[in-house]
Amino acid sequence: MLNQLSAKISVKILGLSFVRINIGMMFLIAAYAKLSAGDGWPGRMVGFLNFQAEKSYGFYRDFVTSFVVPNKEVFGYMVAYGELFVGLSLLLGLTTRWGALIGVFMVSNFIMAKGVFFWTPSSNDAMYILALLALLFVNNKDMLGLDNLVIKKWPVLTKVWI
């Protein structure tokens, strides 16, 4: 039995699972910092956005100043709980594709807020997006995670779950 299990777990499965779990941990660490800041987080987010305002992309700067900053509490908690969802999703391998998709959206917004070019050598943001895209498009059967259990138990969910 052990030989059958080890034969099914390939280097590809372990590698993809390792990447997924590590990115999930990064999102969880980021979410923890925001959620533990409590009511101070939305103000810190606005401070970051104001600090980056001159560097951010023009179209994004307009969106931030006219929509995000006036609604900082809503967006602050959307960011914190979005990171929590992505982190848990990727760590557990549960709704992995949804977590990866939301993660790409969140990191893309972070890049636009910073106003950096996608391939900036001093930034890891491009690597996060590329790894999240890989997790988005890979078959979840190729990773260790709870998605496999859900699919096996309720195959009908395959179309909406992953």
Write up what this structure looks like.
The structure is a single chain. The chain is mainly α and 162 residues long. It has helices at 2-8, 11-36, 41-52, 58-68, 72-92, 96-114, 125-137, 146-153, 158-161. The chain is elongated, with a radius of gyration of 18 Å. The two termini are 29 Å apart. The model has no long low-confidence stretch (mean pLDDT 88).
Summarize this structure briefly:
This protein has 162 residues and is mainly α.
Radius of gyration: 18 Å
Strand tally: 0
Helix content: over 70%
Order of helices and strands: HHHHHHHHH
State which percent range the strand residues make up.
under 5%
What is the typical, i.e. mean, pLDDT? 88
Unreliable spans are none
Helix count from the secondary structure assignment: 9
Distance between the termini: 29 Å
> Shape, please?
elongated
How many structural domains can be distinguished in the coordinates? 1
Class by alpha and beta content: mainly alpha
> Describe the biggest sheet?
none
What are the defining features of this structure?
162 residues; mainly alpha; 9 helices
Task: Give the arrangement of secondary structure elements.
Layout: H1 2-8, H2 11-36, H3 41-52, H4 58-68, H5 72-92, H6 96-114, H7 125-137, H8 146-153, H9 158-161
